Amino acid sequence: MGSLERVLVLDENESNVLFFEMLLQQLDRNLTVYTSSVGAQAEMVVKEEKIQFIICAWEMNSMPGTVFVQRIKNNRNKKHIPCLIFSKRMTDEDVTLTKELGFQDVLGMPFDKEKARETILRIIESEEHVTSEEKKLRKIEALIGEGDLKEALKLFDNKLTSGKNKSRALIALAEIWLQTKNFEKAEQVLGEILDEEPDCTNALRLKAKLYSLTNRHDEAIVALEMMIQKSPKNIKSLLCLGSVYVDANQLDKAKGVFDKVEKIDSENSQLNDEKGKMAFKEGDIPLAAQLLAETEAGEELARHFNNLAIAKVASEQFDEGIQTYKNAIQLLSDKAKLHQLHYNLGLAWKKKGDMEQGFILLCQSYLIDPSFEKAYIALARVSKELKAEGKKLDAKLVNKVKIARQKYKGKLDNAS
Which of 15, 27, 29, 399 has the fewest CB atoms within 10 Å distance of its CB? Predict the structure, then answer.
């Protein structure tokens, strides 16, 4: 992974910051040490200075370390930054949370200088000598975050799903099966993880998500409430529970959960995403647009809105489904790849009986992503049906599709 050069130390206590600043400078390494006493400022430093390692106090007033580290870890572009926590006292809930977040090291106070030095060196060495297996896992997780599930799936092998990172690899695989609606495979993989690690937080959360996606909302709610009872400071679990309440149309309970999150972290970006999803479901599109204006989860939101619309079309609520697709496309026009939404909108028009409108949307889907073969097959099929009925196709649109097809095939030929 290369050398680790940029470290951030975060604490309101200047003497603690100075302790780590001096210790880091004495390590005989080429380290640039950034310091901050405010969590919000530290977030900006992490982003702007491309921080590679964080040393953070657990107890702070303006933004507790419990909140700061969750913000960092829940950002898919920052989730692999190693964090070293230090604390005066840890409750049982705090210990549970650190384990759920994957922190291996917590320094007690007052500091043991030699222990702190050894711990920091071990973390730096580990990050500078990342194994090939770890690199592959990080690549898979990044691809899943970007919605590139096919490429992520290609990287899996038996060694990855049976090695020391088996649980983490299987969680990534379960996420792929969930996103592709292969629920049977997802449940099988999650069962394998939980048989070996019954308290695996990420697997339990995914299982709750699986329950919700298969309309077993009550089971999802029970599972998440049990998790939150053990770890009430886990923001991700709270947001997941709120999301399930929204899916179950228990909006008052969802609002109650979101209020709890707001008290813990009022500026949480994922909270705005979840509240935006709730506003969308309630039909308040202006509010949804306001809440989702700064979202970094466009691909995930696109999948969520797509599932809402699919359910409506499947129950023959065509107008509601079509409007859901239109609203989603409007909201996410600059935040996600929209070929799948256009594709399913085209199919919805076709199912409603308007093949001409369906053809236009399928063409738009293909033009957005000429590698999306399902769209091309569907538009070709609808094209034949329209011709059989004696209807003319939009010549300019057909020509655009042909040109896009030729260019895409040319790229494939050159690559081979």
Answer: 15
The secondary structure of 18-62 as a DSSP string is HHHHHHHHTT-S--EEEEES-HHHHHHHHHHTT--EEEEES--SS
99: which 2 tokens? 């384990």
Please give the backbone phi and psi of residue 284, each rounded to the nearest 5 degrees, phi first: -90, 80
Look-up of token digits 């995930």: 300
Task: Check if the beta carbon of residue 333 is closer than 8 Å to that of residue 367.
Answer: no
b (16+ CB within 10 A) / e for 101-121:
bebebbbeeeeeeeebeebbe
Residue appearing with tokens 């940029």: 6
> Mean pLDDT across the stretch 77-89?
87
**361 neighbors 342 (Cβ within 8 angstroms):** yes
What is the C-alpha end-to-end distance of the chain, expressed in Å? 30
**DSSP state at residue 163:** S
Is there a contact between 152 and 140 (Cβ–Cβ < 8 Å)?
Answer: yes
Q: What are the residues whose beta carbons fall under 8 Å from the beta carbon of 305, sequence distance 6 or more?
A: 280, 324, 325, 327, 328, 331, 332, 341
**C-alpha to C-alpha distance for 8 and 35, rounded to whole angstroms:** 6
Structure token pair of residue 71: 């913000």
Question: Using one digit for the tens of pLDDT, what is the confidence trace for 138-197?
Answer: 999 999 988 889 999 999 998 898 888 899 999 999 999 999 999 999 999 999 999 999
pTM of the prediction? 0.85
Rounded Cα distance between 116 and 344, Å, is 55
Question: What's the confidence (pLDDT) of residue 136?
Answer: 94
Supply 393's token pair. 């196709």
Whole-angstrom distance, CA of residue 229 vs CA of residue 241? 12
pLDDT band at 1 (very low <50, low <70, confident <90, very high): low
Can you tell me the distance from the alpha carbon of 76 to that of 142, in angstroms, rounded to the nearest whole number? 7
Sign of CA dihedral 265, 269, 273, 276: positive
With bands split at pLDDT 50, 70 and 90, how would you rate the model's confidence at 416?
A: low
Q: Structure tokens of 364?
A: 């738009």
Length of the chain: 416
Assign 29 a pLDDT band (cuts: 50, 70, 90).
confident
Tracing tokens 């982003």 back to the chain, one arrives at: 47
C-beta separation of 338 from 302 below 8 A: yes
Bridge partners (DSSP) listed for residue 35? 9
Task: Write the burial class of residue 230 (CB in 10 Å: 0-12 exposed, 13-18 middle, 19+ buried).
Answer: middle
| Residue of 220, 227, 265, 217 lying closest to 74 (CA atoms) | 265
